[in-house]
Model the fold of this input.
Amino acid sequence: MSRILMSRLLVATAACAVAACGGGGGGGVGFTPPPPPATQTCPDGSVIPVSQPCPPPPSVVSPSIFPGVTTDTGFAALGYEASGLNTASGALKDAFSVRYDADTQQYLVNLPSSDEFVFETYDENDSYWQGYASTGFYEDTFIDVFKPRSTNPEIQLAYTSFGITSGYYSSDFGVFAFGIPTPASSVPVTGSASYDALIVGRPLDINGVISGDATLQFNFGAGTLSGHLDPVLHYNGVATDLGSYDFVNTVFGAGSASFSGGLSHSGTSTLGAFDGRFTGPAAQELMGRWIAPYRNPTNQQWHEMFGIMVGKKQ
Done:
């Protein structure tokens, strides 16, 4: 037998032994394959060996609320938040903030009832982005943010938006406006202008919604302001006109970037209040917040409501 053939036989015999080869009744040596490596399921659903780290979560990019904002920016923000129905207006919270982080391309929102969170959307329509913020166990918050776009059917804005919030587990609810503030040096000091605004709010005694319009008339040279709110209550499928609220005791000086005043309704001697500021490079838009008494149509009792307004120059 040649050396080459002998070598091949030896190799084949060794291979057969490892593979438990044998004749019909033989007792070849069994082979147990090694167990598969232990695995883990990562948050993104991938299954990988435990010896490997899970891939990092994808970076959350907020919707481009203000497309022209590309650097770190803190926005002017104002609004109110209630801790639940029947909260007294004096106990409303107002510590809101909104900012844009250019490095992460995220809009970050801070509500009175929550820590700062990234505004992330799960759905949208022509008027709003619908978002959901998880700021801690039992602290989740729903938030809808108005789209400042020329295609928005509600009102067409470019420098101003607002958010409507409600707690998922908590009873907190609120509404706040935010925008790019007008520098005081860019507020007109001559002429007059009228602003048409959208109002959004909530009553404090029932689970309803307030909508409506506002008109604000400024005389920039004289430093005067007049106007009115016209709110509508939506409750149990019924829309109720709440009447007009005239601006009284207004405070606005020539060249001022902010304004304020009272709200007077013919049905009560109790005054409401509002305050706001201009937005846009040259006061093209404005935003404000308000609190006012209203007559609940279901029991004819006077209660309170609150909300915001956002508008633009006509």
